[in-house]
Amino acid sequence: MTSASPAVKGRGVAGLLRVLSGHLRPFGLSVLFAVVNQAAGMSAVVLAAAAAGRALSGAGTAELWPMFWWTLGLTALRAAANWVESWISHELSFRVLAQIRQWLYGAFARIAPGGLVRRRGGDLVVRALRDSESLEIFYAHTSIYIAAALVVTPSAVVAMGSIGGLRAAVALAPWLIAALALPLALRRAGTRHGADLNRALTAMNVEVTDLVHGLRETLSFGGGPDLLARLRAADRRLASAERRQSLRAGLETVAGGIAIGGASLSVLVTGLDGGLPAPALLASVALAGAAFTPITMLLNVTRVWGITSDSADRVFDLLEEPAAVADTGAAALPVLTGPPAVEFDQVVFGYDETRPVLRGVSLTVPAGTTLALAGATGAGKSTLAHLLLRHFDPAAGAVRVGGVDLRDLPLDDLPELVCHVPQEAFLFHDTLRANLELARPGASADDLAHACADARVTPFLERLSDGLDTVVGERGAALSGGERQRVAIARALLRDRPVLVLDESSSQLDALSERELQAALDRVGNGRTTLVIAHRLTTLRHADLVAVLDHGRIADVGGHAELLARCEPYRRLVQAQADAAALLDGRPRPDDDARR
Ligand SMILES: Nc1ncnc2c1ncn2[C@@H]1O[C@H](COP(=O)(O)OP(=O)(O)OP(=O)(O)O)[C@@H](O)[C@H]1O
């Protein structure tokens, strides 16, 4: 998933054309049919006008019928070419867009999750969907119309020369140039308007995404009016960006219309002045209008060029965004005969250079044991776990699994060694079975049953109406927090990797749930090397070792009882827990007997 590095470099048109260079055959065919379409359409109009001129000059039906049939044939050819052009060009654009989207998904995977924390979800959705959709106009229309206009427009001027004479051709050419001049003159404004519109739309999308995800919190804290005010402001910005864009686009349309009128009038005056016969005069005037077809079609799409080019920049920016970690390792996975040891060796790390979070952490999780990380909030526990999952690389020092520095392994190989159970596991809006099979596609009924039993999913599974085929709702909304965590543990059991990183839920549990969860954790940790970010005393007591992180340094490592006796920061941590007093006093908690 991390590969698929795009072959595009450069922004805007350069990037767009570079992508197109991989699809030259369908592009060439689209241009060919666009030329046939436009040339046939123009010829049909000119021929019909010439026929009308001849009829007015008293020509007989015998002379007019062949012109009629030619006009009909050219119209039919135009229709057929139009259909084929539209078919091939859209096929081309969908193919290119599918490729770009694949690259975008690859980019998400490459920069995730380290790089994604800096980005808003709504912004990424706009880039993956709307921005890449905007490029459709370029691949299905703009690029093809530019190429066709380069062929058809000069041909129209030459045709004008042969029908209406040199003076008519000279009268037409400046208007054709004038039609392109205004959009070219307004190009900078168009680019700015496109960027403004995209920015406003992204801001709107981000607000709406936040609204959907945070509605419960917003309403319960009475933030509804503020939120509505923010949405209204985003709406106003969007409307004003759209207004500027459409005012400029309208101006360009008007300019195109004036140029067509001016060209027809100039050719008419020149023809009349030169004493052109009626058929040639009518054909010239018709051609003066028809010659604008390629340019009009081009102008229709270049009106949104600012949006297209800005979208291209945004897509290519994302494609070129460097990964949070460099995927340069080529070492083979360590050959394991059992769970490997995990070692943090003098690890230094900070999310930005000015503020170190880990300040020389050296810590070993012996093979096959469970080490619980304890520490005050912000001490760096999750950060240490991030490094073991290679969401980031240390600035100094090394993280090793089975003696191999993680940076020496290809990124795609790491999931073979390490499995992550996050604090809030993401559950897809799908059945429980599909959510579990994510960890082991095609898992047998037995595999699923064992994992569910070991992770203590079975007790609540029996209460669900459709068992494993129950749809768990958006992000698993149909399950409780504790149930979601047990599903996450079942996934880890199905995944069955030798090293486990477990970010324990910090939510308080009742005694029964606590016992169930601990049983599930014991089962998943069995036979694995486990690093657990501990939030519960039960976990600290059950762990083989506890490491105390204090302001990015290891304050002490040992068993729970040892640390209580000798490590002041640890004593303070334990005391801070809701039931610490009972523990220190030796007063048994309701479930203590069962665990000691
Ligand atoms: N993505 C990030 N970007 C910048 N700073 C971060 C990021 N994630 C964490 N931090 C900072 O790094 C420090 C350590 O955070 P970390 O999440 O590792 O602490 P923790 O010990 O796991 O805390 P908790 O128990 O509250 O989860 C904190 O000061 C935090 O604000």
TrEMBL record:
The keyword Plastid does not apply. One of its GO terms (molecular function) is ATP hydrolysis activity. SUPFAM superfamilies: ABC transporter transmembrane region, P-loop containing nucleoside triphosphate hydrolases. It comes from the Bacteria. InterPro entries: AAA+_ATPase, ABC1_TM_dom, ABC1_TM_sf, ABC_transporter-like_ATP-bd, ABC_transporter-like_CS, P-loop_NTPase, Type_1_exporter. The keyword Transmembrane applies. It is a multi-pass membrane protein. GO terms for cellular component: plasma membrane. Residues 342-576 form the ABC transporter domain. Residues 29-301 form the ABC transmembrane type-1 domain. The chain crosses the membrane at residues 27-52, 138-160, 166-186, 253-272, 278-299. PROSITE patterns: ABC_TM1F (PS50929), ABC_TRANSPORTER_1 (PS00211), ABC_TRANSPORTER_2 (PS50893). Keywords: ATP-binding, Cell inner membrane, Cell membrane, Membrane, Nucleotide-binding, Transmembrane, Transmembrane helix, Transport. Its main location: membrane. It is found in: Cell membrane. It holds the Pfam family ABC_tran. This is ABC transporter ATP-binding protein.
